Amino acid sequence: MQYFRPTKDRRALWRLLHSLTTEGSQQQRPIDCLARALQRADKGTATGSLIFVIADMNREISALEQTLGRLCQHHTLVLIPVDDPADREIPKMGRVTFTSADGETLEVDTANPTARENYRRIWQQRRDSLTGLTQRLGIPLMPIATNEEIHQTLSRDLARHFGR
User: Where are the domains of the chain?
Assistant: First the structure.
C-alpha cells in the first residue's frame, strides 16, 4: 500500500501512474485490506452490532473463514459482494495480467474463447465457495452488480432476509 499526497501538480499523477505500472516484484508486499478490516471489526465493535461487509469478493475466501466465523458469533453479519459483469464475463482485450491481493499474478489471453471460459469458471468457483461459506455460517449474502440499480437490489434483498 502506498500513500500519495493530494496535489495539483501533474507530476503527482505521473508518480501514481508509474507506481501502478511498476512490476509487482518492485512493489511492497501486498496488504489484504479486507482481512485487516474484518480483524479490526472483530476487536473493536460492540457485541450485537449489525455489520455490513461491502467488498469485491472475487477472491479466494477460505483465508477469511475463521475471522468471519468469529464475527458472526457475536454480531449480525451481512455480506454484500460487489460484482462487475466484466469480472464474470471478461471482454476481449488481448493479453491481460491480473494481480491478486496476495500478489499472485494471472495472465489471460482474452481473445481466446477457452481462456475466457476458464476465467468465468474460476469466477463461478469462487462465488460457489463464498455461497457455501455464508450458508455454513448463516450469513446473508446479497450480491450487488455495478450495472444494476443498487438501491432496489439492496431493498429487495434486505426485505427478503430480514422480513421487513
Answer: 31-162
